[in-house]
Amino acid sequence: MVTPHAAGQPVLELTGIGKEFGAIRALHGVDMQVFPGEVVGLMGDNGAGKSTLVKIIAGNFRPSHGEIRFAGNAVHFSRPIDARAVGIEVVYQDLALADNLTAAANVFLGRELKRKVGPFTLLDHKAMAARALELFGELRSETRPHDLVKQMSGGQRQAVAIARTRLSNAKLVMMDEPTAAISVRQVEQVLGLIHRLKEQGVAVMLISHRMPDVFAVCDRVVVMRRGEKRADKAVGDTSPEEVTSLITGAKEAA
Amino acid sequence: MATPLESPITFTNVSKAKWWQSGFFASQTGYVLLALVVLFVVMNFASPYFLTEGNIQNVAKNFSFIAIAALGVTFIIITGGIDLSVGSMMCFSAMITSMVMTGLSTPGMPGASWFVHLAADGKTVVANVPGLILLISVLSGLGVALIVGLVNGFCIAVLGLSPFVTTLGMLSIVRGLCYVVSNGRGSFPGGPDADYFYALTSGNVLGMPAPFIYLVILAIAMGIVLHHSSFGRHVFALGGNEKAAELTGIPVVRVKIEVYVIGALAAGLQGIIISGWLGSAPANMATSYELNVIAAAVIGGANLAGGLGGPLGAIVGCVLLEVIRNGLVLAQVNSYWQQTLVGVIIILAVLVDRVRSRMA
């Protein structure tokens, strides 16, 4: 297995990240690095701090302590849009798609391509459909830009949500439980999509409860428990059994 | 649009939907339009008067009287909201318009000297600049609509109140204001510009009623805005999945306020046009019109859950309601049956759509 650690600078670097909500300490002293083209699995039980960590990186929350460096620069996000501006994209668990719109419309939602017609600025349907088709092609997903999302399978929906992150050439894509609610065949498709992102040098952070998926696509697995990072290992150096005991607390740290 | 030939994807197990299973032909608007055509044919055989020029003109005029407001409400319904205050809004705008028009045309009223003077006979009032009073009074009528729309939008988008409750309250507030400003008596468009006013609201242009022409222009504009501008795209996205709209960076608050303003302005314009046809703006004008307007939009395929709807549907809904009303009159059916039938049609239209989506 190629470990990209040696290959230069991390795209995301967290140092001593902590977060308190009133008296509750949700995160404490989390250090973490993610490199370009690397897939990192983020695992942990409910309440372990995974979502809080993701929300801090995505700009939903500000950390109480610590520093985030992205592509070498210290960054401070106050809104999700700030995180997106530097190249961090999130694929949400419920995918954040509008069912009543087409695949192409969803990919470009909030960043529509436009053209000038006389004094008016209108949507450029043709250019958006062509670019969306290109993106679905890169992801090798059989999705038509003009089909409504309402009529699509779970795998196709994932492709639409992921294509959206490709639009801006994101450097880091965080995926929240992408395989939680879909069929076995579609899980294969989604894992395939993650491989496509990796091939293109994008760093992927996969938040999942499903051990087989994490071991199938990830280069490295990070385990959280009670707001702290308990393990950070290459998948080759660990086993599903060890990760399970780290998640449950049977083993304190590794 | 067809997939380009140099498509990088080959579709092996995802077949393309047949033309009659997608788009307009599979929509509720399509079915209702078909029902409308059938109704026209039936009416033509049932009554020799139905397709006469006079009757068709009459129908066109009558449905135009609710259709412009229906266009505005359709915007709101697409975002998943509702506006119950359109009936009161029609009355309030009409009332303010005719009160301003009368006030500015009465020598002696504050500010009126800028607009009118008395002719040599000491009785006839003459406008200093023809049409200026009309312009200002219509703008003030639309101005109050704008304010009410902003208040609706602010309460719903910023304060997070439910659209139903907010606009139900606004229905009562605005109707109350109508009675307050007029002292319950109603008002009449008057002064030297009143003739222009009547010509523009209830006159004919090229043999077509003027309101019908406004309706066609506004409907085309609305179609372009909904399907070819990013604002329209955001309106649909908001109705489809509000959370997704927010996460993708759509200015949800702004879009929501804008649709309520559009709804109020459309209702205001509609009210002003109706008052021109009535020749007055009584304080009980357009009472319960909100139900007709919303019914028309829903019959035409706008989904109250949000995400679906368009100008054609709103108009088709209005035409259907008006043709049925007209048909019942021509067939000499007791006109009290009208409301009952309208209710049946609302339920039928939604039912047909439900059955179809079950089958698909």
TrEMBL record, chain A:
Keywords: ATP-binding, Nucleotide-binding
Record flagged with keyword rRNA-binding: no
GO MF annotations, alphabetized: ATP binding
A Pfam cross-reference name: ABC_tran
PROSITE patterns per record: ABC_TRANSPORTER_2
Top-level lineage group: Bacteria
Keyword Transferase listed: no
SMART domains: AAA (SM00382)
Every ABC transporter domain range: 12-251
SUPFAM superfamilies, per the entry: P-loop containing nucleoside triphosphate hydrolases
UniProt function note: Involved in beta-(1-->2)glucan export. Transmembrane domains (TMD) form a pore in the inner membrane and the ATP-binding domain (NBD) is responsible for energy generation.
PANTHER family: CARBOHYDRATE TRANSPORT ATP-BINDING PROTEIN MG119-RELATED, SUGAR ABC TRANSPORTER ATP-BINDING PROTEIN
Name assigned to this protein: Sugar ABC transporter ATP-binding protein
Species, as recorded: Bradyrhizobium jicamae
